[in-house]
Amino acid sequence: MNAELILQARGLRKSFGALQAVDGVNLDLRKGDITGLIGPNGAGKSTLFGLIAGETRPSSGQVLFQGHDITGMKPEQVFRHGLARTFQIPRPFRKMTVLENVMCAAPNQSGERFWSNWIQPGVVAQQERENRARAEDVLAFCNLTHMTQEMAGSLSGGQQKLLELARVMMAEPRLILLDEPTAGVNPSLIEHLIDRVVELNARGVSFLIVEHNMDLVMRICARIVVMAQGRRIAEGTPAEVTVDRKVIDAYLGEVPA
Ligand SMILES: Nc1ncnc2c1ncn2[C@@H]1O[C@H](COP(=O)(O)OP(=O)(O)OP(=O)(O)O)[C@@H](O)[C@H]1O
């Protein structure tokens, strides 16, 4: 696999009965890019996310992440490899505090294993302190420090998205799949959320983003992949895809032959 690529999908397919939701998709994501994944409703974007993140088994095809074949791995394994999808880990526990929600998203919590508490309580306590410190750092990065002790259920839609970002950050992912980050988010928080994504990207995290807000996609994505009816129909810079006839036709409902 080309070292400049963080993710490669080859011939990915997923059918639901007679419907080809994802129909032989190839995808090359460059390391360090924010890539947009767009397409009309029902194009197969969410299904493709599920195939990459291990939630859905492909009917055929292969996914390589940082050179490793992750096809067929469980979502937790994919997560531990450094590929995180928002919503991939369980949704926030509404009756736990924001801090507890972030702490319990940390992979490798030996405190959860019954025996390790008896055999090596010092190690568990030390790890818990480290987790807490890291969770506090991540919450500060996401501007949620003032909400640390609030119940997760009391957060606004935008703050919930920030909490999700904080939770996936606990696994120090190299690639984050973001599902419609701005849907249901107050406009005043959208800029803040995007600012955090851009900052994480500057620190070396790659992103694949499904987003219906085209202005946003055009603004932050280096490259855009366009899907329609399960297929990848175009790929390029924002300037290239916006003038692509196949893309215009797909959005007008005329899918090219
Ligand atoms: N579990 C499922 N069972 C049956 N059909 C499904 C299932 N999941 C998705 N589909 C179908 O697969 C196709 C692709 O759906 P998908 O949700 O991946 O599209 P999308 O591009 O994410 O759409 P949207 O932008 O509306 O979220 C649609 O026709 C959808 O109805």
Automatic annotation (TrEMBL):
Q: Which Gene3D superfamilies match?
A: P-loop containing nucleotide triphosphate hydrolases
**Transport in keyword set:** yes
Report the Pfam families cross-referenced here. ABC_tran, BCA_ABC_TP_C
GO molecular function, a single term = ATP hydrolysis activity
Instruction: Please give the SUPFAM superfamilies that the UniProt record associates with this protein.
Output: P-loop containing nucleoside triphosphate hydrolases
Per UniProt, residues of the ABC transporter domain are 7-254
Q: Which GO terms describe its cellular component?
A: plasma membrane
Could you tell me the keywords of this UniProt record? ATP-binding, Nucleotide-binding, Transport
| Keyword Translocase attached | no
Concerning PANTHER family, the annotation shows:
CONSERVED COMPONENT OF ABC TRANSPORTER FOR NATURAL AMINO ACIDS, CONSERVED COMPONENT OF ABC TRANSPORTER FOR NATURAL AMINO ACIDS-RELATED
What is the official name of this protein in its record? Branched-chain amino acid transport system ATP-binding protein/neutral amino acid transport system ATP-binding protein
